[in-house]
Amino acid sequence: MIDRIGVPHKTWPSAGNSNEPSAIKNKPSFPDRSQARKKRIHRPLHHSLSLSPFTPSFQNTSKHVSINPIEKMAEIQMNFAQVFGDSRASSDEVADVDVVSAIEFDDTGDYIAAGDRGGRIVVFEREEKSSERRSENNPSKRNADYKFYTEFQSHEPEFDYLKSLEIEEKINKIKWVKRQNNAHFLLSTNDKTIKLWKIYEKKIKSVTSFVGDKSKAKSAPQQLVVPTVDTRETAIAQTPRRIFANAHAYHINSISLNSDGETFISSDDLRINLWNTSISDQSFNIVDIKPTNMEELTEVITSAEFHPHHCNVFMYSSSKGTIKLADMRQSALCDRNAKVFEEPEDPVSKSFFSEIISSISDIKFSRDGRYMLSRDYMTLKIWDINMESRPVKTIHIHDHLKSKLCDLYENDCIFDKFECSMSHDSNLVLTGSYHNYFSIYDKNSKNELHLEATKVASRLRRTPQVKKGPKGGKSGDINPDALDFGKKILHVAWHPQENLIAVGASNNLYIFNA
């Protein structure tokens, strides 16, 4: 437990607290984890699958390119490239431990890491690396194919005997650490424990020959026989370099690496901790929203992320639909002095489900750090970092589901947490939906693209199935009754340098490129 705010501490196992948020009613961020586990069936994914006075000046550090939005959207046509996993299996046949739960590109885009609910991480390597330069005459013809690189078990199921709580092995987040040598490093986390993994090529050596006459060596012991050792093969090895544990009393929902390459933050439902990648037994608590009386709890933290260029700035979102931008130079506890981004709620549209559907499930910075992207259940919002009163653009994703909110509440689909991502040039945004649909929207225009995650070209749909409305009503609305809510794309990622995306659908990882 963390005793003092902003003071480094030793991390010890907490003794449990009956007042923690999991006991609070109607708080969707704390699912009931007392159910018995399903039978574990392991199938490898690659086989079966303002802030005064410290407000920084946010400048667009990327090269500005003037692009006509309409022409840009016309140029980008996402086409199916690859799929990893058993795409023929129906959703009912897929074991729960095989479902993809996290996707992340490294900073070059040459590697993709995918985690699943079984605690495994599968890494895919691009066949043509970024170091292998493309032809200057044909720069768009770079091969988009990836191949299997390695797979390892990152987390195992555990049991907290103090709280009588089962800790799932599900991978919640993966973050690549900036590469310093030939080895790869990545951070992975489940609900309680963060691990720093090293992935490297290990040379397997063996004796191939002897220098000298081995037969004469028996009669003449003075003759030296020297063995020759050669490298016979190279294997990919993985080892956990550090384990960051016992610092979170509640479930970890996100991790984010700092631009300094040395520190990262981890957030749970009520606290955000700051770590150093080389120190695993202490951390700083920089955000703590836990009230003295847990009955007064009104919101929880849902996600957190560092600014891509300013190592002292980070943001975090809440279940109330707000985003807070904080500066670590201003205060040791950053939740009291933060820039709040919030759109006023329309009293007319308020309902029983308003609090649930307004909860932000994911937030992302644009690569230049100028914009913020947030996803809640119904909408995708783009915020300018210099304007906190309202978003610069609101994209309605699930308006067609308003009539089915009661049903979605009953089957728990209303608590699904959809991720979002932004393109490398910050002009396009990506998010998923039901029926294995995912959508790409142009930030600067009304252009949009809807695709279904499938490898069969004839089934690839530019627009979802539509329902003709009655006379006087809207036509072209999506028919919610035709959607399969068992098929959903929750996890998406955009290549850091190209128009190439990865989406997770059940136990499959799909790659699409322009």
Quick structural summary:
It contains four helices and 33 strands. It has helices at 69-75, 214-219, 354-357, 405-410, and strands spanning 9-10, 79-84, 100-105, 111-116, 120-126, 146-153, 158-160, 165-167, 173-177, 184-189, 194-211, 226-244, 254-257, 263-267, 271-276, 279-288, 301-306, 313-318, 323-327, 338-341, 362-365, 371-375, 379-384, 393-396, 420-422, 428-432, 437-442, 448-452, 466-467, 477-478, 491-494, 500-505, 508-513.
Describe what you observe in this structure.
Helices cover 4% and strands 38% of the residues. It has 514 residues and is mainly β. The radius of gyration is 25 Å and the shape is globular. The model is unreliable at 1-20, 22-73, 135-139 and 457-476 (pLDDT under 50).
Strand content: 35-45%
**Most strands sheet:** 5 strands, antiparallel
The low-confidence parts are: 1-20, 22-73, 135-139, 457-476
Measured distance between first and last alpha carbons: 48 Å
Can you count the beta strands? 33
Strand order of the largest sheet: 1-16-15-14-13
- Rg, nearest Å: 25 Å
Averaged pLDDT: 79
Structural class determined from secondary elements: mainly beta
Percent of residues in helices: under 10%
